[in-house]
Amino acid sequence: MTGDRTTFPTDDTFVSTGVIDSGAQPDRGRHAAVPGEPLLTVSDLRVQFTRGGRRINAVNGLSYEMVPGKMMAIIGESGSGKSVSSRALMGLLPGTAKISGSIRFDGRELIGLDEKELRKLRGGDIAMVFQDPARSLNPTMKIGSQITEAVRAHSDLDKKGAHARAVELLRLVRLPAPERRFHEYPHQLSGGMRQRVMIAIALAGEPRLLIADEATTALDVTTQAQIMELLVELRERLGMAVIMISHDLGLAASYAEDVVVMYAGQAVEHAPVRTLFSNVRMPYTRALLGAIPALDREPHSMLPVTPGQPPDLSALPKGCPFRPRCSNATDKCLEHPPFLEHEPDHWWACWNPAGTELDTAPEITAALTPASATEAAHHSEHDRPEDEGVAR
Amino acid sequence: MTAVEERQQGLPAAPRTPLLKARNLVQEFPVRGAGGVRGGVVHAVSNVSFDVYPGETLGVVGETGSGKSTLARSVIQAPRPKSGEVEFQGKDLMKLRRRDLKQARRQMQMVYQDPFGSLNPRWRIAELVEEPLIGYGEGNATSRKKRVEELLDLVGLDPSQYAKRRPHEISGGQCQRVAIARAIALDPALVICDEAVSSLDVLIQAQVLNLFEKLRRELNLSYLFIAHDLALVKQVSDRVAVMYLGQLAEIGPAEGIYRQPLHPYTSALLDSIPRIDPATGRANKPVSLPGEPPSPVDPPSGCRFRTRCPRAQTKCAEEEPQLVELLPSHQVACHFPLTMAEDELPPRPGGATQAAPTPVTSVA
């Protein structure tokens, strides 16, 4: 068993396992990242699907930058375009999707890249971990062969070398008893262990960017903490950038350094995590924060309510997409608010942000009176236009 | 909210008769091993007792596989538990015949997690809400129609807009409102919510939670509120029961469980929740609980949590802890509860220990 070895030379590269030589040679023979340069620049990304004659605007002008080694969270509700936009990075969208804008990864434009190049990139420089490990793994294959497959797809290792590397990867993701688990099938593992295997597969290509798409959503809260700790540790050790996509603001606040909040396919607020949560400017972000059942709230207290539903992506409202649900909305909001860096490192897209004189929303800590809260919810639901049906 | 608070503080004062009384509930399912030969038994619920009082919400939290859904199903006798007692409104459900059970179930309704899965996609909203009324032979077509409109109004759906729609024409949150309208159609005393808001987005979830709260006040409902999210459960509950591997680890007032958890598992659960302090924008760093829950087919001897417990001693493997009331109406099943200081524990070979219940540290 060669499992105890941590590094081994191959024909042309020196494979780092990250176990001992913690990110000592992050470039590994590929393009070295220029310090200070963003690893990933997404600008004005738009994705449009056509379904049943209706045009669905899944992503509407998303822009952000990411420097190497950062952990960034993209937060949003279902249908906010957080998953679609990250799938666009990987070229994983169906051919029917119309993609425009620009995604530059390491100085290379990814939109319009041919399939052959994309294949090299996927699982190589950019890897992804999905929400449901049970469905992402092949139930008829032993986990060992699934990892070995990924290892061999991205390196010139022979069978034996790939096997050793696969066991090392399992050890890297702290799967207990990796040599034994190597020969087991996915159904023999628990959800948390399966997600560890998925992460091992993602790491097989030594990615520089790992996208974790709701990677812990299906897991229990105690297991979630384990997997997040693992991701944080691996990021530091391997020096990769991580984009975590989540609907959970609390999770983002606890682990990410940067947070992008998305609504209706657009970034509406983007800031370092501390800045964002101590100085929320976008009314939508504030609504999200206020709606989380917090442990320090009184039992039976009413939650502050944001009326209505997320907009229909095939018929977006004029101007700011959050306008129909926003308590700060004015006539000005009929004009689309630009997404600008209003304060250093703090971007938002709002005409009447929180903390200005037009700000009418209640403080998130102040509980609404029960009657008015439910009333607001009702009326707005009644007022909703007829065609807003299928929102989820 | 001070009135509510005060009422909770004085909770055990009035010797009220419980609406639902479960004693020593046991539910087990046989499983087949590889090839269908070697059988085992899943100990889904083992010896669980609890009460739900009129107008009260009892929250049940636990991880996947802790038996919380099985517990709910045992209460409504679908399927009947293996042993134990379920007394609901003074009737022993375990002994009821099928027809009497149907009448008893009229007073206890369920709301499930998947709003689309629990509604027939081919039916209109009005028909879906009318179904329970027909099932129990309520009124005639005209009075039922009126009642359906009343119910839809109550859950915040405009009957003129929504009555004629089908489930796929409305959103998940609205589907859940329809499911709630069905549940309250027969004026039940108890509504069992099994992860009823878990699949909803946070803003919609807040709307539905407020709806539950409004109905509780207006209709004087009792809830058995099951969820995996401790913060969510605490939001709606008077009392909270924490389940681990088919057993109750701790049961007590919602505030008490949060302010002073007694069981190491509850404390670990609290520590692993990521949360933000809205005032400062600082987040806590969740502390993970090592290991995975053991298999319910072959639970550990003694205390079932001992394999992951930072305070485990040899006694924990030998003797099964029983629920003991350590604080007023706050029971815990642990040999070495958290009221016992670290240094009072018998010495044991080194190892990590669980610190204060809520260490709030900032993000790096």
What features would you highlight for this structure?
heterodimer, A: 392 residues, alpha/beta, 8-stranded mixed β-sheet, 4-stranded antiparallel β-sheet, 20% strand, globular, disordered N terminus, B: 364 residues, 12 helices, 22% strand, disordered C terminus
Write the layout of secondary structure elements.
The complex is a heterodimer of chains A (392) and B (364).
Chain A: E1 8-9, E2 14-15, E3 40-51, E4 54-66, E5 71-75, H1 82-90, E6 98-105, E7 108-109, H2 115-121, E8 126-129, H3 133-136, H4 143-153, H5 159-172, H6 178-181, H7 191-203, E9 209-213, H8 221-238, E10 241-246, H9 249-255, E11 258-263, E12 266-272, H10 273-278, H11 283-291, E13 340-343, E14 346-348, H12 370-383
Parallel strand pairs in A: 5-10, 5-11, 8-9, 9-10
Antiparallel strand pairs in A: 1-2, 3-4, 3-6, 6-7, 11-12, 12-14, 13-14
Helix pairs in contact in A: 4-5, 4-7, 5-7
Chain B: H1 2-9, E1 20-32, E2 39-52, E3 57-61, H2 68-75, E4 83-88, E5 91-92, H3 98-105, E6 108-111, H4 125-135, H5 141-154, H6 159-162, H7 172-184, E7 190-194, H8 202-219, E8 222-227, H9 230-236, E9 239-244, E10 247-253, H10 254-259, H11 264-271, E11 276-277, E12 282-283, H12 314-318, E13 324-327, E14 330-332
Parallel strand pairs in B: 3-8, 3-9, 6-7, 7-8
Antiparallel strand pairs in B: 1-2, 1-4, 4-5, 9-10, 10-14, 11-12, 13-14
Written overview of the protein:
- The complex is a heterodimer of chains A (392) and B (364).
- Chain A is an alpha/beta fold and 392 residues long.
- Chain A has 12 helices and 14 strands.
- Chain A has helices at residues 82-90, 115-121, 133-136, 143-153, 159-172, 178-181, 191-203, 221-238, 249-255, 273-278, 283-291, 370-383, and strands spanning 8-9, 14-15, 40-51, 54-66, 71-75, 98-105, 108-109, 126-129, 209-213, 241-246, 258-263, 266-272, 340-343, 346-348.
- In chain A, strands 8-9-10-5-11-12-14-13 form an 8-stranded mixed sheet, sandwiched between helices. Chain A has a 4-stranded antiparallel sheet with strand order 4-3-6-7, covered by helices on one side.
- In chain A, α4 (143-153) crosses α5, α4 runs parallel beside α7 and α5 crosses α7 (191-203).
- Chain B is of the alpha/beta class and 364 residues long.
- In chain B, 30% of the residues lie in helices and 22% in strands.
- Chain B has helices at 2-9, 68-75, 98-105, 125-135, 141-154, 159-162, 172-184, 202-219, 230-236, 254-259, 264-271, 314-318, and strands spanning 20-32, 39-52, 57-61, 83-88, 91-92, 108-111, 190-194, 222-227, 239-244, 247-253, 276-277, 282-283, 324-327, 330-332.
- An 8-stranded mixed sheet of chain B has the order 6-7-8-3-9-10-14-13, with helices on both faces. Chain B has a 4-stranded antiparallel sheet with strand order 2-1-4-5. In chain B, strands 11-12 form a two-stranded antiparallel sheet.
- In chain B, α4 crosses α5 and α4 (125-135) runs parallel beside α7 (172-184).
- The two termini of chain B are 36 Å apart.
- The model of chain B is unreliable at 1-10 and 349-364 (pLDDT under 50).
- Chains A and B meet through α7, α8, α9, α10 and α11 of A and α1, α7, α8, α9 and α10 of B.
